């Protein structure tokens, strides 16, 4: 599978590179590493994603 066993940093890099290879249009990509059981961290991630989506839509309609 190409990913060393029990190596967190290598696993994160491997997964990120898999996503980057699928990004054929070269869209901007943000990587956030988190633990799904850390509810405060997940809350921050969702807020950042929501803000990014809102900013993209505002830019599309020249409202920012």
UniProtKB/TrEMBL annotation:
Domain of life: Eukaryota
Annotated residues for binding of GTP: 36
Keyword set includes Magnesium: yes
Residues spanning the signal sequence: none
Endoplasmic reticulum keyword on record: no
Location, primary (coarse class): membrane
SUPFAM superfamilies tied to this protein: P-loop containing nucleoside triphosphate hydrolases
Subcellular location: Cell membrane
Alphabetical keyword list: Cell membrane, GTP-binding, Hydrolase, Lipoprotein, Magnesium, Membrane, Metal-binding, Nucleotide-binding, Palmitate, Transducer
GO BP terms in the entry: adenylate cyclase-modulating G protein-coupled receptor signaling pathway; phospholipase C-activating dopamine receptor signaling pathway
GO cellular component, one term: cytoplasm
A Gene Ontology molecular function term of the record: metal ion binding
Family named by the database record: Belongs to the G-alpha family. G(q) subfamily.
UniProt protein name: Uncharacterized protein
